[in-house]
Design brief:
Largest sheet: 7 strands, mixed
Number of strands: 11
Mean pLDDT: 96
Structural class: mainly beta
Order of helices and strands: EEEEEEEEEEE
């Protein structure tokens, strides 16, 4: 079983950047596909980005494509979400998740493990 802890959230102005980290413990992240999701106040949780277990495939929500990038550092057992050109609509709690299956997980039910979330606020 893997434990996930997010960090890196905070307050940033529109147009700015943040890098979220998701540190894993208990098992190597290279054994899992990973994803990032977010939930804005009074909204449903939504998919943001996914990285396959092999690390060879990524997928992004249309709303973040070209601005966000998901990556993994196996040596640090950490997954990152680089967020550029941030917009107020990106304000949300961001969660990382891990899945044991192969391929890309685009829905929350594809994932077995979740972090506690990190807050991102983008001011206009």
């Amino acid at each position: 079983q893997v434990q996930l802890v997010e960090s890196g959230g905070g307050l940033v102005q529109a147009g700015g950047s943040l890098r979220l980290s998701c540190a894993a413990s208990g098992r190597s992240l290279s054994s899992y596909g990973v994803g990032w999701f977010r939930q804005a106040p009074e909204k449903e949780r939504e998919f943001v980005a996914a990285l396959s277990r092999s690390g060879g495939s990524t997928f992004y929500a249309d709303s973040v494509k070209g601005r966000f990038a998901i990556s993994r550092d196996n040596a640090k057992n950490t997954v990152y979400l680089q967020m550029n050109s941030l917009k107020p609509d990106d304000t949300a709690v961001y969660y990382c998740a891990g899945r044991t299956g192969y391929g890309l997980g685009l829905h929350g039910y594809h994932y077995d493990y979740w972090g506690q979330g990190t807050h991102v606020t983008v001011s206009s």
